[in-house]
Amino acid sequence: MNNFHFAKVIAGVGPTLAKETVLSKVINMVDVFRISLSGGFDDNNKKYIDTIMKLDNSKTIMLETRGSDIRVKNVLDIKVKAKQNIEIDYSEYAQEHDKKIFVDAPFLHELKTGQVIKFQQSGVVIKIKSTKDNMVLCEVIEWGWIIQFDRTFFQNYDLNLPFLGERDFKDILWGLEYGVHVIAPSMVRTVEDILELKKFLATKNADKMKILTKIETKEALENIDDLIEISDGIIYIFEKIEKEMKAMKLNEEILVKKCKDVGKPAIVTFVGKIEKNKYQLINENQLKKFSNMAADAYMIDTLLQENDPLEIITQLSDALDKLELKIQTPELLRFYANNEYMVRDYIIYNAYRTTQEVDVRAMVLYTENGYSAGRLSSLKPRVPIIAFTKNDENYRYLNMLRGVRGYKISQSFSYDNLKRIGKEMIRIIFKGNISLDDKIIIVQANEITTDEKTGMINGLELYKFKNI
Fold it and tell me: Which of 51, 87, 365, 458 is most buried, most CB within 10 Å of its CB?
């Protein structure tokens, strides 16, 4: 099954990865490309999207809002020594400067002497000695290289920034103009935050845009059930909520399960570190843990240093190939869902049960809104799900569901088309390594008996491959 992987990979795009020579080597290993405008508005961001779509226009482009994300604005790395004095200045735009640190923090003048500032990936720590207007003089406490566009934290300082500020509105408008497919809002706290985002998207005729909510604040964790309900999926930034999880007696498995129980993707993030002058992304034990939970996707932190993004993505993809089919088969239990989807969920459950009791090679289904694919995926089947949809937003969304390969079809799509095209997709996925007697399931999970638009009959059918 060399042409199919179950868990999905989300990679942050930067200058090195966006080069066509590099991108062409990883395009088949990455399902979603994440665009962050932390580096500022420049033509490169648009070029990244153009290059990705040129190589494979089936990929999903995710726009990450900045929220309270504060970044170094230097485009050059800066080497600092212990006890060295160095100035920090405010800038919204990128700066070619290696003697002074620029950050997009408009509140520098509010900081007090003794304030500690940390740079996430660089590991550099500095402390404020004095301030004047937006100019801050600091002493280096922990030395090293400050990396271009590194994330900046102000220890024990409340940024008090709105969920959607002016720069976030600008970022979203930029994304809508240049064709992003999903939005990942940062620093979400409450359901009202997501409602505010949805309201703004509706005013721009983008009300069908899928929203993947990032869980990285205490308030978001406290409101996790409501946020799962209102969102299209969840991105867990576990590194930021470890203390809160412990206090609330929550763990990664519980939080991932909350998403999968309602058929929505649970995405986990790996934040890399610089160790021995090399970018270290993950360790095998950590990945094995999330693989056993059947996490839908793995989001690689934006490759700021970009020593070798090809090596990092290949490392993750190869590790997933070894682990994802070794996950423990869950006990076959009947699940009960909201009465609104009783018939649909019963069919989905029986489709999954069939894969447990019969040697099935793949499942084929049609989905109007992505629910059937998401709910079936959440049961952790060990066979590929080939999902067809007419809706572009749902088509891109399928790229984030574990074990699902999505295809967009025309409005005139019918049941006969589903069998014919589905059979061809199975050949492609298995690279011809499928016999005529291998078994395939076709699923139509709806609340009505017959779909007049497609001619599909509600239920599931078991075929030999040669008879489809």
Answer: 365
